[in-house]
Amino acid sequence: MMSTLTPVSLQSGLGQVFFPVHLANASMLRYLDPKVDMMSRPRRRRSTAHRRKIVFISTWLAALSGCEAADKSWRMTLVGASPGGAWSAIGEAITDELRRGIASSSFTLEPGQDGANAVLVQQQKVELGLVHSSLALAALRGTSPFDAPQPDVRAVMLIYGDAPFHFIVDRRSGLTDIADILRRRSPVRVSVNTRGSLMELATRTVFDAYGLQFDDIREYGGDILFFPFNESYEMMKNGRIDAIGTTVQVPSRHAVDASRTIDLDILSLSDEVIALANERLGTDTTTIPRAAYDFLDHDVRTFAGRVILITHRFVPEEQIYQITRTLHDNLARLRRAHGSLRALTPATMSEVGGVPLHEGAALFYREIGVR
Predict the structure, then answer these.
(1) pLDDT at residue 82, as a whole number
(2) Domain range for residue 58?
(3) What are phi and psi of 159, to 5 degrees?
(4) Distance CA 368, CA 40 (A)
(5) Which pLDDT tens digit goes with each residue over 60-110?
(6) Which of 305, 334, 349 is a domain's end point?
(7) Tell me, what's the pLDDT at 84?
(8) d(Cα 13, Cα 18) in Å, to the nearest integer?
């Protein structure tokens, strides 16, 4: 299990105490070092700052004693995404609710990355992870971007759904239909976010349905680029990218911001392409309404993915049951943590996009009558 704690052994009656890395500094260890004989020093009047430091350390040690008393089987790690993003806020809300709702538990949030989170769960390096359901399905099958099946990945609950695929283009490129790339052998430059992300997988799937491969784009003189949102839109603004493939909830803040300086459009997909994407990715047909973005002059036919909470199938059933129940019982507070969670309800928690449910979660959903 991943941990942010570094063990520091002290002969102080507490046994081995675990200090957070940023707290294990020389100032604290000086006051806790048993080799320093405080009684042998000349007695002097303590300053107010010194007394405050002693009080702080005493309080801190008491908190550490409480951590040591926590049930070790309830020390769990959740991996999300890079700090500061939506998944970071959602992960903090989840771990906060679980710590609050499960006695003697310790839940830690660590940075992660979509598909890589499924691998960490499979390898039992962490107990919980956030991932797009499409990537969880790919992990189970061992299809791209995974080199081998990750057969023990199981779903706990839906986090949010309705994250439509956007194929966003700069109107200066003249691109109005993805099929035109093949017909005209257009040298388009497309950013698909980071490698191994759902954005890459979804764009690759759409291109494949149109008879295109990434290598074809390069052969036409274009390129496939791997940049996150901010860099992608900055490059588009500077005329270095023609299109961006992404899955994101509507409205995308990045697209709205970029549209103030770039003339944007979002291209619709054909019914056949949407059907193939749904079959491969476990997504659902949806429409981005014209009113969703000021720059749109048409509805956009596309498909939508979802984000789920996953675990390993060998995590005990009773623990996942309790995790699921705790999050269910505190949905009202959880929904307030981030706008993407507003649509989450007890009835939708089990809608995990075809990923097999963990037995503990399935048991809870059967009890409340939603499976």
Answers:
(1) 80
(2) 5-69
(3) -100, -55
(4) 66
(5) 444 444 444 567 889 999 999 888 778 999 999 999 999 999 999 999 999
(6) 305
(7) 77
(8) 14
Per the DSSP assignment, residues forming a β-bridge with 160 are: 307
Coarse DSSP helix, strand, coil percentages of the chain, rounded to the nearest 5 percent: 40, 20, 40
Query: What is the DSSP pairing of strand 223-225 with strand 284-288?
Result: unpaired
User: 250 and 190: one domain?
Assistant: yes
CA within 13 Å, CB half, 117: 34
75 falls within a domain: no
Count of other CB atoms within 10 angstroms of residue 66 = 10
Within this chain, do residues 166 and 297 fall inside the same structural domain, yes or no? yes
Say what percent of the chain tops pLDDT 90.
Answer: 72
Smallest CA-to-CA distance from 192 within 154, 155, 156, 222 is with 222
How many whole angstroms separate alpha carbon 259 and alpha carbon 265?
9
In tens, the pLDDT along 321-330 reads: 999 999 999 9
Determine the Cα–Cα distance for residues 145 and 200; give it in Å rounded to an integer.
9
Do residues 196 and 114 lie in contact, with contact meaning Cβ atoms separated by under 8 Å? yes
Mean pLDDT of the residues in the chain: 85
Query: Phi and psi of 161, rounded to 5°?
Result: -115, -170
Q: Within a domain: residue 99? A: yes
**Integer CA distances (angstroms), 252 to 169, 208, 220, in order:** 14, 25, 30
| Whether residues 222 and 282 fall in one domain | yes
Query: Is residue 74 in a domain?
Result: no
Asked if the structure places residue 10 within a domain, the reply is yes
DSSP string, 243-271: EEEEE-PSSPHHHHHHTTTS-EEE----H
CA 213 to chain centre: 27
Query: pTM for this structure?
Result: 0.76
**Do 247 and 286 form a contact (C-beta atoms < 8 A)?**
no
Please name the residues in contact with 173: beta carbons below 8 A apart, sequence gap of 6 or more: 188, 242, 243
- Same domain, residue pair 55 and 86: no
* Domain shared by 104 and 230, yes or no: no
